[in-house]
Amino acid sequence: MENDFYFRYPSFQDVHVMIFVGFGFLMTFLKRYSFGAVGFNFLIAAFGIQWALLMQGWFHSLDYTDGKIKIGVENLINADFCVAGCLIAYGAVLGKVSPVQLLVMTLFGITLFAVEEYIILNVLHAKDAGGSMVIHTFGAYYGLSISWVLYRPNLDKSKHLNGSVYQSDVFAMIGTLFLWMFWPSFNSAIADHGDGQHRAAINTYLALASTVLTTVAISSLFEKTGKLDMVHIQNSTLAGGVAVGTAAEFMLSPYGSLIVGFFCGIISTMGYIHFSPFLEEKLKIQDTCGIHNLHAMPGVIGGIVGAISAAAATNTVYGDLGLENTFDFTGPFAKRVPTIQGGYQAAGLCVALCFAIGGGIFVGLVLKLPIWGDPADENCFDDEIYWEVRQFLLTFAGN
Amino acid sequence: MENDFYFRYPSFQDVHVMIFVGFGFLMTFLKRYSFGAVGFNFLIAAFGIQWALLMQGWFHSLDYTDGKIKIGVENLINADFCVAGCLIAYGAVLGKVSPVQLLVMTLFGITLFAVEEYIILNVLHAKDAGGSMVIHTFGAYYGLSISWVLYRPNLDKSKHLNGSVYQSDVFAMIGTLFLWMFWPSFNSAIADHGDGQHRAAINTYLALASTVLTTVAISSLFEKTGKLDMVHIQNSTLAGGVAVGTAAEFMLSPYGSLIVGFFCGIISTMGYIHFSPFLEEKLKIQDTCGIHNLHAMPGVIGGIVGAISAAAATNTVYGDLGLENTFDFTGPFAKRVPTIQGGYQAAGLCVALCFAIGGGIFVGLVLKLPIWGDPADENCFDDEIYWEVRQFLLTFAGN
Amino acid sequence: MENDFYFRYPSFQDVHVMIFVGFGFLMTFLKRYSFGAVGFNFLIAAFGIQWALLMQGWFHSLDYTDGKIKIGVENLINADFCVAGCLIAYGAVLGKVSPVQLLVMTLFGITLFAVEEYIILNVLHAKDAGGSMVIHTFGAYYGLSISWVLYRPNLDKSKHLNGSVYQSDVFAMIGTLFLWMFWPSFNSAIADHGDGQHRAAINTYLALASTVLTTVAISSLFEKTGKLDMVHIQNSTLAGGVAVGTAAEFMLSPYGSLIVGFFCGIISTMGYIHFSPFLEEKLKIQDTCGIHNLHAMPGVIGGIVGAISAAAATNTVYGDLGLENTFDFTGPFAKRVPTIQGGYQAAGLCVALCFAIGGGIFVGLVLKLPIWGDPADENCFDDEIYWEVRQFLLTFAGN
After folding, report:
1. What are the recorded Gene Ontology BP terms (chains A, B, C) (predicted)?
2. Nearest-angstrom CA–CA distance, A198 and A192
């Protein structure tokens, strides 16, 4: 029973479902790009976890002496996390790139992720159990930067396919719900055994619950017709989980989690309504899934909340849960005081942003080479370019 | 490893999937109300768990001295259970109420649930691990009472939308299957550690398996055409899980579970065929999802089976599992003999019924006030009232 | 915490999801047979687990003295495994048999499985944690033999229904992904506690990841148009999990798993492209889901890989995981050397094949009797024979 398998495996499976079903189905919302959404998500995730096991293995073996890569369930979780960054980036370019471009994007993305993560967690000794900085901020700005470089001025040629139909929206809700339900497992999967893991799960659960309410409220209030918009329900309801990623295992109290979730629901939904059009028209960033609203802004907020929580560590009493502070200031950084730790957390956020934007621009330029078979402007968001599509409508010879 | 997290968290996640994917998708069967089914289910569940954590926290803190609300994984499970009652009630009024009405219904529902549960479990000291009485009986009669007060004589104006299409039935099967598969976790989630939890899971598994067979048999035998009806497969297959909710952790033997499941499959399917039309025409109760057949009748049966099992406790030998009786007669009720416990179980069932029907009528009257924006008779079961629906059919500019 | 429940229950639930959602939705790919796919899968699985609990209980009670059937979570897993064999067989005859025929097929299939499994595991003392031989080889050849006996020369009368539409392919991906994600739990569910279970999960994870890459590559390379085929993505991506079933808990190294998965992706996809037409035209075996490519060939490969791994046990160093050999040569076979064990593994594979083909031909002849209400050639692959189908297309009175 001492085997780490029994502590981590249920959380690993939840994270695994998020990566393959959660991300995969969340992107099926486009009316004629469901195969590409779920199929290419499957491809790049399966490719990414193998490359991530190797890359993370090499980096983590730097800390050990025998130089061998060891694989346990914690490494599988880390590989899934690593892949999550690339799948977030996929959301920005969904429907506009070829599978080969996706593989190149993933190859570089995983590599950048491994370096960035090593610097943030092992050099700066920042904490980021749920990956607000390491996964979400990095993944989102990586994807947005690539999308900025690959800007297509004539994308409205395929405008009629850049939207949902009734049933593709229902499919996307499968993705949303599995992401939403298992997010507490995501944020707690590699937290410290026992109370740390317990607390991270509970804080995430609370943040997510309050996000749903503000998302629905804002969606209804700010739409012209007063009706709810499925795009917001599918995406913004998850923003709270992103934003408590860093702080979930800290002494963020239940009320703190609820407040973070409350504001992230507002910010993310407002982002879809007001900021996405601005991003596309002024900054020339075409963001198919709106990852700026779901991952980028909440991720940065999460990094900042994490830095503040860490800096305020000694001053807070985590009364409701009766739990102690989780920082173990052992090893070379044993003497760090909370405010210093807060500074290192903020430094970690900057590292994530630099790697994301710098790496994204570089990879975007690589992907601009005319050798990757990307779709023409009028064929974007269309499965028929890369998939055998037998029949769209359910009609029959007989009737 | 002593942390309760490792005993309860996998079961919690299964229950969480039942609440959000199970209930949400089960209700997507209506041809044009899938957004409302899965979206409003999401809204009221996310709202409900927060309110339930507070309400249950206040009530449970009555038993402690420091007056603080403590949150652990068991509380999250209890909050999900609490919400389950309201989602069951939602099934009766699906498509006929506005989201604001749903929130009001949930607010009162959770409050009534917390009081009722406190009386049944902490005052009467009845046992109800899987909630046949506390969750299913309460939720179902609460919803049916509300639906009775909100009776719409001219509902057949939207009759053409009160039915399924091929693919909405397949979506609903996602809900059915996740409910069916994870029901053993539901009934065992808060059972006693070890053998109690183990036994509750196995008894539920067996009851559910036998329910499927009788549901299919009855559906085929009693339909005029001899064909199977998806409505029965989607709903009645779950009745066995409802009915062993109370008794699952008792000494109900494997054969007992199979027998309970066997009869519940028959009763629930016959309910859909014969009792639902009677309910609508004679009793003026319009029950969109047929919760009377899935939750109300099996819930009451479950309460009765629980009372009988408890009363018969010392006379039964739970030989096949080799497990002991689970009652711990400690505390102020240490001296209760099994027959007395059986009486208290029966009293618990009555409390659940009283709260459900009384509360439901009161809440129904509140919801009848003309201030909640409920849909007109001809707009029932239609997503377009509350949701931006972009396109129904998969047709394109191009073809 | 010593209770086996806490070691096995999370894996059990994953396996349960594979059986009901995984297999059920994988078969929904046919345009007009989704009810039959998910509904009959539900029926025969629910029937099968009850019969399997009894059959396996009787056989396992031979090893004990008190003659009683004991049920614990490990038995539930074994019952699910047993059912998996019959669901694989269902894939070969999907759309061409009546529900009564399916029940007969399951009744005999479970019985044959229980005998075959008892001989392989308890008489020959072969090891087969993930069931490459016991489950996949047996189930696939059992189904193929039945399909051979039930050959329909005029099946092309319902050719227009033997294919997918866009959204049925997306539904099928739900099945594929849940099978793919939870396969590590399947192969490790009954492995030895601790390292054995840990290693089986990791080896399966790696094999599956590499299978996805070769499946996509081969699908794209060998299709005339260079486009990907959803049939391959839905099925061949799972072949690696089948093939490491036997060897997963052995000292198969991570690289060994990757290599097995790599080749199985190639073989399985090539099977769909080249071997399935040959099977139908020359051998007169109509294999609706292509189980020959997904289960039969990878299953046999898995049995062979298992025999080789067992035989090579002492010569390999499982360095990367730092784990010891899992064979415990206790009991009557304590003195077996690895090469002898390898021979017994190979014998196990032969037993599985004999039971499958012999049993399949016998059951096929039984099912050929004209009393089971099977569909006419022109009604194959059509739900309307056995199900009330209300409406196929999403059209309305109003528009």
Report:
1. ammonium homeostasis
2. 9
Using 50 as the pLDDT threshold, list the residues of chain B that sit under it. 315-334, 395-399
Amino acid letter for position B128 = D
Residues contacting residue B149 through CB under 8 Å, at least 6 positions apart: B360, B361, B364, B365, B367, B368
CATH number, domain containing residue B334: 1.10.3430.10
Contact yes or no for A201 and B73 at CB 8 A: yes
DSSP string, B216-275: HHHHHHHSTTS-B-HHHHHHGGGHHHHHTTTTTTTT--HHHHHHHHHHHHHHHHHIIIII
CB contact under 8 A, A198 and B5: yes
Binary contact (A396, C161; C-beta < 8 A): yes
Residue A45 is part of which domain span? 4-385
Question: With an 8 Å Cβ cutoff, are B212 and C34 in contact?
Answer: no
Confirm whether A172 is domain-assigned. yes
Which of chain B's residues have a Cβ under 8 Å away from the Cβ of C193? none
Distance between CA atoms of A281 and A292, rounded to whole angstroms? 15
Does residue A380 belong to any structural domain of this protein? yes
From chain C, the residues in CB contact with B173 under 8 A are 24, 38-39
Q: What is the number of structural domains in chain B?
A: 1
Strand partners, B228: C387
The per-residue pLDDT for C335 is: 53
Model pLDDT, residue A58? 81
Answer yes or no: do C212 and A47 touch at CB < 8 A. Answer: yes
Any domain includes B232: yes
Asked if residue A106 is part of any domain, the answer here is yes
Chain A closest-CA separation from residue B171 CA (Å):
8
Strand stretches in C82-173, DSSP E: none
B372 in Cβ contact with B104 (< 8 Å) = yes
Q: pLDDT tens digit string along A194-234?
A: 788 888 899 999 999 999 999 999 999 987 788 999 999 99
Amino acid in the structure at residue C50: Q
Specify whether the CB–CB gap between A48 and A42 falls below 8 A.
no
Are the C-beta atoms of residues C264 and C239 closer than 8 Å to each other?
A: yes
Tokens of A25: 């189905």
Sort out which chain C residues have CB atoms less than 8 A from B161's CB and list them: 396
Range with lowest mean pLDDT among A297-301, C81-85, C313-317: C313-317
Pick from B1, B76, B396: CB nearest A202: B76
Tokens of C228: 């990907």
Chain B residues lying within 8 Å of C69, measured CB to CB = 320
Regarding an ipTM greater than 0.85, the answer is yes
**Of B248, B274, B270, nearest to B128 (Cα)?**
B248
Partner-chain contact A391 C227, CB within 8 Å: no
